Amino acid sequence: MCLVLSNQKSNMKLYCLSGHPTLPCNVLKFKSTTIMLDCGLDMTSTLNFLPLPLVQSPRLSNLPGWSLKDGNAFLDKELKECSGHVFVDSVPEFCLPETELIDLSTVDVILISNYHCMMALPYITEHTGFTGTVYATEPTVQIGRLLMEELVNFIERVPKAQSASLWKNKDIQRLLPSPLKDAVEVSTWRRCYTMQEVNSALSKIQLVGYSQKIELFGAVQVTPLSSGYALGSSNWIIQSHYEKVSYVSGSSLLTTHPQPMDQASLKNSDVLVLTGLTQIPTANPDGMVGEFCSNLALTVRNGGNVLVPCYPSGVIYDLLECLYQYIDSAGLSNIPFYFISPVANSSLEFSQIFAEWLCHNKQTKVYLPEPPFPHAELIQTNKLKHYPSLHGDFSSDFRQPCVVFTGHPSLRFGDVVHFMELWGKSSLNTVIFTEPDFSYLEALAPYQPLAMKCIYCPIDTRLNFIQVSKLLKEVQPLHVVCPEQYTQPPPAQSHRMDLMIDCQPPAMSYRRAEVLALPFKRRYEKIEIMPEPPPRPTQPTGGKKRKRASDDIPDCKVLKPLLSGSIPVEQFVQALEKHGFSDIKVEDTAKGHIVLLQEAETLIQIEEDSTHIICDNDEMLRVRLRDLVLKFLQKF
Amino acid sequence: MPEIRVTPLGAGQDVGRSCILVSIGGKNVMLDCGMHMGFNDDRRFPDFSYITRNGRLTDFLDCVIISHFHLDHCGALPYFSEMVGYDGPIYMTHPTQAICPILLEDYRKIAVDKKGEANFFTSQMIKDCMKKVVAVHLHQTVQVDDELEIKAYYAGHVLGAAMFQIKVGSESVVYTGDYNMTPDRHLGAAWIDKCRPNLLITESTYATTIRDSKRCRERDFLKKVHEAVERGGKVLIPVFALGRAQELCILLETFWERMNLKAPIYFSTGLTEKANHYYKLFITWTNQKIRKTFVQRNMFEFKHIKAFDRAFADNPGPMVVFATPGMLHAGQSLQIFRKWAGNEKNMVIMPGYCVQGTVGHKILSGQRKLEMEGRQVLEVKMQVEYMSFSAHADAKGIMQLVGQAEPESVLLVHGEAKKMEFLKQKIEQEFRVSCYMPANGETVTLPTSPSIPVGISLGLLKREMAQGLLPDAKKPRLLHGTLIMKDSNFRLVSSEQALKELGLAEHQLRFTCRVHLHDPRKEQETAMRVYSHLKSVLKEHCVQHLPDGSVTVESILIQAAAHSEDPGTKVLLVSWTYQDEELGSHLTSLLKKGLPQAAS
């Protein structure tokens, strides 16, 4: 029996800790539990920093320092200028979720929706006094670990002595050119975590499966559902017996490698929190893949190299699968494909063992038993080779022209920096951007001037606005809550009214550091009833036992039922006669009748919805009449 | 009274053809659908005519659950679904779904191609049967229909083995299938949460055994194999293609590596490579160590173990051969056994349980002269060793699982009656729960007292709380409300709300009683006296004297009026509604007794 009643309206709140719509971090206060939804890390902040070259780059190390208009050069150690842009020359830093809005040590659980949305986890679990549990699916944890490992490795293997902080001073930042001047929350920017912190954070995760019902303190149940976006990616249902919140984050309706999205379970939500929509609503992922392949083939045929900045897991599996089908027909069978990442091998191996999290086609292959992804065959036939870094074996195997998949998509760290420096000067080469997280023009800025071709083929399989509108029609939540970016057209396409969420009632929007009170109309609570009433207890009132005297004050706490119905006068009179009353007289009134029992000096007023018995103080008589009247009425 | 009924069609006081019918909350579920290795006639399959003689099975069963891929748990499935006829859902885990059809095909081949049986299920039937399978994830709550839900837990034992919780409303049953409570070289240990089922149906293969440490057993095994090979003997290890085979392969592989041994190790069937491939692809189902290191080194890629060819059996010199099936009842293991049995240098190691009637069982029980087909007598001179490597829980493990799940009662299957008896006593003593061990066809009925969850309207709940009594989650209490049942949805609301929802008007029943009082004073003074009297008597009620001269006790109205004929008498009109019946009636009798004499 669950009878937790508290001030129910005010405690359903959403604390919004991230301003990035695809890297969310929200805290939901729901029925006296505090639940963090995702833990995204905004890495776009790194675009303000100079790239970390693996190999000493004379170009980057000789960039001029930046000085104020008046010639004051006190920042020239921290800020460097490159083709008209100013960059911070320091270890790159990330923009953390808000940590001051709510005491994060009170968070009971963290629910992770996919491996891209957990990158801030070590900051939260290791430095805020967090003592709760993190829930995520097994692929999310394993691949999330790979992403973190890669990130830490990229940053740590290029030790940089300098850490710039002067420029962050508010008074100084005001004087800087854009975009540094407009960079937000710079005081919260932090350096990357260590592997030790990653391991400690990941040890707090409890693995869950789709449609598993997880009870939190008996009051709330949370359930992950397949979201169709990535291996193990989930949406979450957070519900009590009579309230339901759906948290939709990074979902896809396209058929790629993951299990399809579970939409049906999102129905009947009071509130649906919608985050992680496509970042490129105007691009069709299928078309982009086609363009990717043809540009790649064109470059290679002309003797150039192709560089694909990417994450070590996710879309790369789909790209490799497309290339697997494409290379023979395009005459590329002799072109080597290189995948360079400290976690390349692990990522390729892990992708093959999550059969249960894959789409039906791939599952069926495992039953044969064959590896679900064809990149196993690409590796076997030596068409695809993977290396932990460009040092070591790679340098001896390396043949050109070739295709290189490597990170990081921000072009600020990782092996990709070296390839940009190496291939940037030749117009034969091409860099193809497929990851949508970073603006490619900003990513390229520190490499300008650049001779190599740049192709932008962003592949973002997450929901677009047409799909969202369909989804909302299908699952019909009472209220939609989303980041403010989704309630207006994108700034660059302000005329496109179709590129925003359109629903009734209008979506409630949030921005970083805001607190929303969620609109719940709670009307029921769960209890259990017993098949038979318990023996009537002798109720001690006020904690004192009283003896049960005959003239004791009756226990008025037992309510009499309400009555309903009406009394048909004729039948009532007949019943009276049957019970031995005589001398009955009936008078009509404006609203009903009066029945007079003259002998007993008793009067009964009967109207449509009321009966009034007026008699002398003869309890026996009154009770007889009462019971007669009750026979004609229904009790509630 | 609601009840849970359990009837084993197989595995009741027996090992083999596991098949248990459970009726719970009006739903019928069949747990496992196995074959019996000890029989070649009708008795090898469960008797499905028990479910229905002429109706369709689909109408009588809500679902079928298969716990793991061993044939004594799934061997009758194509017969059941395609030949008897069942079209409902069949639930099993992904690895079981992958491997099950291969073993069924293997079984079919031996039965039809080797033994020439007619009227056996066909390859197509296996395929059609597997189309009815719905794969489940561990811990996923699968909604079979609106009321019936099932959930799988990790069981160890073999790749993909699962225990299942079957739940309808607040009633639940857990079926373990076969499980192992200690992790081994390739699998983890079974685990279940404190789910407190009404009934735990557990296997009891090793009901009386407390096994010594696994390390000792392994050392012993390696020593015996090593000695036999050193003296030039041939070692036969009958196994099933998947399961213990991988465990022992890992063991021998590492031993050969460490000791730098050269004698060849063979694995008999074509299944090996395929089997190992399954283990690689379903590596998430293996134990933590293997999962952690698989990127660097996959434990299922063996260097020393090679595929066996029938001709190798006659090769001179020592060798170790893993051959299927595990109970020496047919196939290659039996062929090799016949070849090698006559030489005392050779050895056969039985690493698992053998069902009665099999050659394995006979030699383990000490028989040394075996009657084979065609009245041939085979004399067994080779060394016969038994080593319990089957991944079943031992008595300690079973007790441990009962402790974990905290069931209200326990039911034993998949074991021998005598051993069950012992375990039953132990469970009843230690956990103070009743324990059953029905034979095949015998029904156990357990009454249950289901809880009835209802939604209570907040208004009603708040009214209850306004009375000052805070709800206590553990104690029942009485409260008045109206229960509305709609589409199997129960709601408890206040009577007012119920009337409103049903569109009914309230009918007010009111009483007014005339109480005659002897009091010559003015009406106002009488009223005042009534007020002070009631105020002093009814301390726990709200008594008020209103400006218009009337007195109220809670919502009961008392007015004093002059008597039309007798000026020395006043009439008190006491008026109340039916809802205040008790108090109203109490007041009239109180007033009837008169007022105390005024002090003045």
Automatic annotation (TrEMBL), chain A:
Keywords: Cytoplasm, Nucleus. Transmembrane segments: none annotated. Residues 528-551 are annotated as: Disordered. SUPFAM superfamilies: Metallo-hydrolase/oxidoreductase. It is found in: Cytoplasm; Nucleus. Residues 316-444 form the Beta-Casp domain. One of its GO terms (cellular component) is INTAC complex. The keyword Nucleus applies. One of its GO terms (biological process) is regulation of cellular response to growth factor stimulus. InterPro entries: Beta_Casp, Integrator_9su, IntS9-like_C, Metallo-B-lactamas, RibonucZ/Hydroxyglut_hydro. Belongs to the metallo-beta-lactamase superfamily. RNA-metabolizing metallo-beta-lactamase-like family. INTS9 subfamily. Component of the Integrator complex, composed of core subunits INTS1, INTS2, INTS3, INTS4, INTS5, INTS6, INTS7, INTS8, INTS9/RC74, INTS10, INTS11/CPSF3L, INTS12, INTS13, INTS14 and INTS15. The core complex associates with protein phosphatase 2A subunits PPP2CA and PPP2R1A, to form the Integrator-PP2A (INTAC) complex. INTS9 is part of the RNA endonuclease subcomplex, composed of INTS4, INTS9, INTS11 and inositol hexakisphosphate (InsP6). Interacts with WDR73; interaction is required for the assembly of the RNA endonuclease subcomplex in the cytoplasm. Component of the integrator complex, a multiprotein complex that terminates RNA polymerase II (Pol II) transcription in the promoter-proximal region of genes. This is Integrator complex subunit 9. It comes from Lynx canadensis (Canada lynx).
From TrEMBL, chain B:
Keywords: Cytoplasm, Hydrolase, Metal-binding, Nucleus, Zinc. The keyword Hydrolase applies. GO terms for molecular function: hydrolase activity; metal ion binding; RNA endonuclease activity. Component of the Integrator complex, composed of core subunits INTS1, INTS2, INTS3, INTS4, INTS5, INTS6, INTS7, INTS8, INTS9/RC74, INTS10, INTS11/CPSF3L, INTS12, INTS13, INTS14 and INTS15. The core complex associates with protein phosphatase 2A subunits PPP2CA and PPP2R1A, to form the Integrator-PP2A (INTAC) complex. INTS11 is part of the RNA endonuclease subcomplex, composed of INTS4, INTS9, INTS11 and inositol hexakisphosphate (InsP6). Interacts with WDR73; interaction is required for the assembly of the RNA endonuclease subcomplex in the cytoplasm. Residues 16-210 form the Metallo-beta-lactamase domain. The lineage of its organism: Eukaryota, Metazoa, Chordata, Craniata, Vertebrata. This is Integrator complex subunit 11. Residues 245-363 form the Beta-Casp domain. SMART domains: Beta-Casp, Lactamase_B. Gene3D superfamilies: 3.40.50.10890, Ribonuclease Z/Hydroxyacylglutathione hydrolase-like. It comes from Lynx pardinus. It is found in: Cytoplasm; Nucleus. It comes from the Eukaryota. Pfam families: Beta-Casp, IntS11_C, Lactamase_B_6, RMMBL. GO terms for cellular component: cytoplasm; integrator complex. One of its GO terms (biological process) is RNA polymerase II transcription initiation surveillance. Belongs to the metallo-beta-lactamase superfamily. RNA-metabolizing metallo-beta-lactamase-like family. INTS11 subfamily. The keyword rRNA processing does not apply. Its cofactor is Zn(2+).
